[in-house]
Amino acid sequence: MTAQLHAPDPELAIPTAPEMGAQAALARRVLRNPLALVSLAFLALIILGAVFAPLIAPFRPTTAVISDVLAAPGGSHLLGADGAGRDVFSRLLFGAQFSLAGALVALVTAMVIGVTGGLLAGYFGKWIDTLWTWVISLLMALPAIIVLLAARAVVGPSLWASMVIFGIILSPAFFRLVYASVTAVRNELYVDAARVSGLSDARIISRHILTVVRAPIVIQSAIVGGVGLAIQSGLEFLGLGDINVPTWGQMLSDGFQNLYTNPLLIVWPATAIGLTLIALTLLANALRDELERASGPAKRSRANAGKKSTTAPSATAGDETIRHDGGAAGEAVLTIENLSVAYPAHGGGTKTVVRGVSLTVARGEVHGLVGESGSGKTQTAWSVLRLLPEGGRIAGGSIIFQGKDLAGLREREMEKLRGRRIAYIPQEPMSNLDPSFTIGSQLVEPMTICLGISKKEATERALKLLAKVGIPNPQRTFDSYPHQVSGGMAQRVLIAGAVSCEPDLLIADEPTTALDVTVQAEVLDLLRDLQSELNMAVILVTHNFGVVADLCDRVSVMRLGRIVETGPTRAIFKDPQHPYTRELLGAILSEATPRGPLETVAPAAAPSHKEAIR
Ligand SMILES: Nc1ncnc2c1ncn2[C@@H]1O[C@H](COP(=O)(O)OP(=O)(O)OP(=O)(O)O)[C@@H](O)[C@H]1O
């Protein structure tokens, strides 16, 4: 299997990079939007004028010709001359340089602070969130104009200093936007899935979170850039700017002095400022629209999938008895000893949801964790991945995986294991795939990181894996977005992703619950085949004894956070010792006649018991 997965297949075509294609398509659509095109053309013209001002401008911006004071447009002064005899056209060109650069300084400052803060606070939460939120609240409480006036008094009439300060004051605009977007996606299952597949926090933020916030950042940039330009012009119009720097704001101020003698002097800079602001806003709107259209239905927010609750009977058992019958055959890959998981309880104290759980999983063995809803199966599995939800902590015990105690391992060390040595198959396939990326890119990226192989090799490997997990047209699925495939296909994709790095331990959390019955059986078959082929240790979380009977070598029955019985599957089915196990099995394997068939359906057409519980 190993050789088969690694060997490059020359027959497999290397797909075009879908993300680059999508970006090119987006650029083409933006260029086809007339408003965007006109705005872009205008902004490009302004920027070119600013950059080439020294070559285009007939005069230096500060050159004053006394004989040309308040000269009318025409002759050597295309747009006339101002009250000091300086050429208006030249000043407009040089003014664009400084005005745009000033706005850019404010924008970059606001963006760096706001976006960084929003990402960190939104993604990591806890004290980082508290600290950033406090700083941003403080900034929002400051009156911008007063701060700028005070700063001018301290640092003098510096365009750059005032724009940096204004950028800091504007940073909450980015912070709130990014923070809201990040907190909305932080708990999406595909972010957890990315973590499980071995991606670092930095990688998840840059790939899965930043893509979500990029559209709002684009539109906000245009607004903040425009506000920066407007405020800068306003300050200079009020005479608070640096008179030695030719900006559009300074020109407004100069023009105002001669409003009655030559009103055109105020019209030129006002037109330049107004049109630039309009172009920025229109361009940002068009970009946002096209980005949203490009994402289409795939971008829609998916609510976190609620976990399916089972209808297993409530226990009426008396004292819990634990039956351990010998150690697992083969090399132990995972040994959990006396594990406890706790959460802070409402009103103080702690709530222990997993208590003294011990189990061993050997190489090549499938260990079922079975029990009613809320019995602690998922908490046990997530403890092994060290991905307990916020507030949850391993309160005691050890989780020995290949000689390392995962319970005390540093996060950096854990990152090296997740996705590489310990893989995870979730319950909800759709919510665990990022709707913004093609399936191919979501398979390829973890492989390039975990296996250190090139993108080309990872692509070939992904296509082979897709074929291996029974996807009929691997190339088409590779190029598809998650919303373009069925739930069963998505689960096959996740299984392909989980085994892509040939893990030693695979944790499958109710991997068939969200699928319809016919697909469930196929996915179970696939899991069984892959497990024996890769000789993996598997923990299978399920509430379904049918799945246990089908796949598991050993089973641990959980109830109220404890394992009440553990042993070989065959033995447990044949001779359950604990009353709770008997009750669970009794409920499922009941001989009672099911509710009568519909009149039109012949009794023979009713599904066999095994099919029914699958
Ligand atoms: N974030 C949380 N905060 C506090 N308690 C939690 C949290 N998540 C789970 N629990 C508690 O932990 C217990 C075990 O939950 P767990 O999800 O492991 O159950 P389960 O056996 O996997 O059930 P299911 O089959 O429904 O997924 C439950 O009582 C639940 O209330």
From TrEMBL:
<dbReference type="InterPro" id="IPR013563">
    <property type="entry name" value="Oligopep_ABC_C"/>
</dbReference>
<dbReference type="Pfam" id="PF12911">
    <property type="entry name" value="OppC_N"/>
</dbReference>
<dbReference type="InterPro" id="IPR017871">
    <property type="entry name" value="ABC_transporter-like_CS"/>
</dbReference>
<keyword id="KW-1003">Cell membrane</keyword>
<dbReference type="InterPro" id="IPR025966">
    <property type="entry name" value="OppC_N"/>
</dbReference>
<keyword id="KW-0813">Transport</keyword>
<comment type="similarity">
    <text>Belongs to the binding-protein-dependent transport system permease family.</text>
</comment>
<keyword id="KW-0472">Membrane</keyword>
<feature type="domain" description="ABC transmembrane type-1">
    <location>
        <begin position="96"/>
        <end position="288"/>
    </location>
</feature>
<dbReference type="InterPro" id="IPR003439">
    <property type="entry name" value="ABC_transporter-like_ATP-bd"/>
</dbReference>
<dbReference type="InterPro" id="IPR003593">
    <property type="entry name" value="AAA+_ATPase"/>
</dbReference>
<feature type="transmembrane region" description="Helical">
    <location>
        <begin position="159"/>
        <end position="179"/>
    </location>
</feature>
<dbReference type="InterPro" id="IPR000515">
    <property type="entry name" value="MetI-like"/>
</dbReference>
<feature type="domain" description="ABC transporter">
    <location>
        <begin position="334"/>
        <end position="585"/>
    </location>
</feature>
<dbReference type="Pfam" id="PF00005">
    <property type="entry name" value="ABC_tran"/>
</dbReference>
<dbReference type="Pfam" id="PF08352">
    <property type="entry name" value="oligo_HPY"/>
</dbReference>
<feature type="transmembrane region" description="Helical">
    <location>
        <begin position="209"/>
        <end position="231"/>
    </location>
</feature>
<keyword id="KW-0067">ATP-binding</keyword>
<feature type="transmembrane region" description="Helical">
    <location>
        <begin position="35"/>
        <end position="57"/>
    </location>
</feature>
<protein>
    <submittedName>
        <fullName>Dipeptide/oligopeptide/nickel ABC transporter permease/ATP-binding protein</fullName>
    </submittedName>
</protein>
<feature type="transmembrane region" description="Helical">
    <location>
        <begin position="266"/>
        <end position="287"/>
    </location>
</feature>
<dbReference type="Pfam" id="PF00528">
    <property type="entry name" value="BPD_transp_1"/>
</dbReference>
<dbReference type="InterPro" id="IPR035906">
    <property type="entry name" value="MetI-like_sf"/>
</dbReference>
<keyword id="KW-0812">Transmembrane</keyword>
<feature type="transmembrane region" description="Helical">
    <location>
        <begin position="131"/>
        <end position="153"/>
    </location>
</feature>
<keyword id="KW-0547">Nucleotide-binding</keyword>
<comment type="similarity">
    <text>Belongs to the ABC transporter superfamily.</text>
</comment>
<keyword id="KW-1133">Transmembrane helix</keyword>
<dbReference type="InterPro" id="IPR050388">
    <property type="entry name" value="ABC_Ni/Peptide_Import"/>
</dbReference>
<feature type="region of interest" description="Disordered">
    <location>
        <begin position="294"/>
        <end position="323"/>
    </location>
</feature>
<dbReference type="InterPro" id="IPR027417">
    <property type="entry name" value="P-loop_NTPase"/>
</dbReference>
<feature type="transmembrane region" description="Helical">
    <location>
        <begin position="98"/>
        <end position="124"/>
    </location>
</feature>
